[in-house]
Amino acid sequence: MADSAGPDGLVTELERALSGRGDITLRETSKSWLFFTSDSVFKLKKPIHDNFQDLSSLRARHDNTLTEIDLNRRIAPDLYRGAVRVGRGRHGRLVLDDRAAETVDWLVHMRRLPADRMLDARIIAAKEKADLAASIDQVADTLCAFYRRAPRSLLSSCELLTLREDQLAIARSVLLHPMFSWMQSRVEGLLREMESLIEGFAKRADSEHEEQVFECHGDLRPEHVCLSHPPIIFDCLEFSRTLRLADPFSEVVFLGMECDLLGADWIKPRLIARLETGLGRTVDDERLGFYEAWHAVSRARLCFAHLLVPKPRTPEKWAPLGERYLARAEALVR
Question: In DSSP terms, which residues pair with 215 in a beta bridge?
Fold first, then answer.
């Protein structure tokens, strides 16, 4: 963090600087701090440096802030209010949007959405499928409109294969870490199956059956879908264009899988059927199963990766959740 107060000190100072907007609720994620007011959310990026991004410099965090806003306005144009400059005035206190102050960081400013309207919360609260069916159709229609506008990738099947191979190598490095030696043989078997599936789909690809890959959302989870009217889909993956490249059906399968784990197994087939109509194409069950297994392995890797950092947040959560994803992937590859 560029500011001399350091990350924790800056967070405390920002709480104070934002307090004029009313009561502040602070929430920490693996990559950011979120400051909630009654009508806004301000996101401060952490100065992280990992396999996917380097936000250790002020310039990198500024670029990332603008990229996040720009990308999310593709599908949620009214949600992202803009970038807020965090500066230190001559008196030594933090000030916001003062061009004369020394810039020490940047915030993403968003309109606050109602927590009880998020898809994950609505699945938990809904008593009947009928309570959500119409909203799920609206989400699918919003996604179809987004995908129809999305740029299509011109990468070949072989080039897309290299992306999957790279991602699988990262999953291997995490899931086969010595800390998780108790599941080594299990993971090795699963990853061999995934390698075989990836190679099989690459070999069978031709001009008629090749994947249709677009620049998509990249992180389509229930907590990133607000069932307002119309639905709002937000918080796309901003730090890597290649990780946003996907078949739209792959994204929707991911969202459906996450809904399955919340107890709503009817949502995934409904989303797929709606997408088939809206995009005018179908994907066979074998490929849909591969997409889901791929996402399950990726989510397992993320869960176990949380345990490899110093002082992980909620450490009791990650291994059981990672196990659920591994079991899901194993069932699918069989």
Answer: 245
* CA gap 228, 117 in Å, rounded: 7
Q: How far apart are CA 296 and CA 211, in angstroms?
A: 20
* Burial class of residue 163 in the structure, from the number of CB atoms within 10 Å of its CB (0-12 exposed, 13-18 middle, 19+ buried): middle
Question: What are the φ/ψ torsions at residue 129 (nearest 5 degrees)?
Answer: -55, -40
User: Which residues in 37-149 belong to E strands, given as ranges?
Assistant: 40-45, 80-88, 94-96, 102-111
pLDDT category, 311, cuts 50, 70, 90? Answer: confident
Strand pairing partners for 88? 94, 102
Of 53-57, 235-239, 277-281, 310-314, give the lowest mean pLDDT range: 310-314
pTM here? 0.93
Residue identified by tokens 């005035």 is 89
Neighbours of 138 (CB within 10 A): 16
Alpha helices in the chain (DSSP H): 6-18, 58-72, 119-125, 130-149, 157-175, 184-204, 241-244, 248-261, 267-279, 285-305, 315-333
102-111 vs 225-226, strand pairing mode: unpaired
Element holding 226 (H helix, E strand): strand 225-226
